[in-house]
Amino acid sequence: MPRQGVVAEHPEVARVALEILKSGGTAADAAVAAMFLAGVVQSVSSGLGGGGFAIHYDAKHKKTTVIDFRETAPVGLLPGTIDRLTAKRRGTLVGAPGELAGLAELHRRWGSKPFNSLIEPAISAARNGFTISQHTRRTAIASLPLLAGSAHAARFVAPLATASRARNTTVATTLEQIQREGIAAMYGGSIGQSIVTAARAAGSSLTLDDLARYQVVTREPLKLSYGGLRIITLPAPSAGGLLLAQTLLMHSPDSLRQIGYGSGSYYHLLAETFRASIVDRVRHIGDPAYSKTPLEVLLSPARLSKRRAAIALDRTRAEPWFEEGDAGTSHFSAIDRNGNAIAITSSVGHMFGAKLFTSTGFPLNDALTGFSTAQLLRRYHPRRKGPNRPVGGARPVSSMTPTLVLDARGVRMLLGGTGGGRAATGVTQVFLAQEVFGLTPEQAIRDARIHTPAGGGLRIDPDAPQGLRDNLRERGELLLDTLPNYGSVSVIRIAEQNGALTIDMATDPRKGGAALAH
Fold first, then answer.
1. How high is the pLDDT of residue 279?
2. Strands (E), 241-355
3. Is 327 a domain residue?
4. How far apart are alpha carbons 467 and 221 in whole angstroms?
5. How many CB atoms lie within 10 A of CB 379?
6. Is 243 within the bounds of a domain?
7. Is the pLDDT at 447 greater than 80, yes or no?
């Protein structure tokens, strides 16, 4: 029976990560190698210019830990620059990247193989060539018109739009420099200078000091119980964990079964739940270093019961709410032979981030779009001073939702998603489909999903049954059902069959990828 497995959004990433596990590496080793490689083969989604979050499970000590390597705003950030964004000022959305520091921290805590060896597959792919995924090609094609006049960007992205394979020898040289000099090459050295130069040329206030002061943060996960399981997900500054937790605590397994999986009532109930949760995001979630999240209030049974009672299954409420935009994200999960597990989500923000590439070969994030703008606060926050307003040195709120599910044996499931707000709503739907309704990971991922986008309406996959779409319209939902869903969810599920443990895994056909076990 397989004892270890990986899921990734690119087949080459999955293959390399599984080889790490097969050669005795830990789940953290596999994640570090995977994310370095993902930054090369899917630079649209992640890389050295981005940041993210990871949840790690230590099987020996039965301990879960969140590693926050989210980007931070420059200390000299002027909040109004985010509201006055223009194409020539994309640099104002660049935060100090946390990706490299985060991967180094994961390795320091739980890695077993030499750190430099885990960078080698990424160097090899960048120098010798890699297969361009369908997702990367279509996003490169969509992005090229936005890259006109952007130094370095076109030469790195154009090959991704036209060929079946590509190389990036510039980033290969950059990764080799990190092998020689360590992470100081970015957080104080010449790679860091290339970041500052590219960002400041496009209006940023980012400095080398901002990079030098960057710190990875260790956080306590958000934990709850549901149907006899322990759910471990992200706390602030991610709001994805809050949406997952509020949805589960509002709707018991029995109440959802009574409504029926896949029905119009079911999707409408979830849509109204998601909308209310995202209002809480705007009003209550921010960087914990700058604001306190009132979790006891947000998750109180009385409050959630009242909210559940206000949902009408036959009509849609007009409720203002908000989501962040985010299409440049990559997720990876792994479990090793000792039962250690990791779920890691990394992002550069939108497709190719701020559409700015460094001279050292990688795109810079536009993570500061995760802050609440003045316009948003005027519309949705009663005092117009939300906890997620732009502040120098703060981390903007995210929707990332890497999640672990534990039972009496240990890890039962690892989930994660991409696609901005779709990460949280997607992970929630895929979890419920499996644990409440008994679907397999593949079935749960392939089924139609909904999402509640900015400005109202309800996104639903174009291939959703016509009868379901008609039913939702009858309930007052304004359907947005013509655009493809590029949000992605992946699952590793540990199950017991005939007294033995098995691994059941799936990646999302909406974005591609691979699930491999050994």
1. 84
2. 328-335, 341-349
3. yes
4. 40
5. 13
6. yes
7. yes
Domains in the chain, number:
1
Helix/strand/coil for 417: strand
pLDDT at 443: 97
Residue at 88 is within a domain: no
Residue 169 in this model has a pLDDT that exceeds 70: yes
Structure tokens at 433: 């489909």
Catalytic residue among 64, 170, 329, 452: 329
CB burial class (10 A; 0-12, 13-18, 19+) of residue 124?
middle
Quick one: tokens of 202?
Answer: 């496009």
**Domain that includes residue 68, residue range:** 1-77+95-185+214-349+400-512
Q: Is residue 298 part of a domain?
A: yes
Q: Which element (helix H / strand E) includes 95?
A: none
Give phi and psi for 195, each to the nearest 5: -65, -50
CA distance to 9, 28, 459, 466, 489, per residue, from 486 (Å): 12, 27, 12, 20, 10
pLDDT in tens, 418-429: 998 899 999 999
Order of strands across the sheet with 222-226? Answer: 222-226, 229-233, 403-407, 410-418, 488-497, 500-506
502 classed as catalytic: no
Read off the tokens for 45: 């989604």
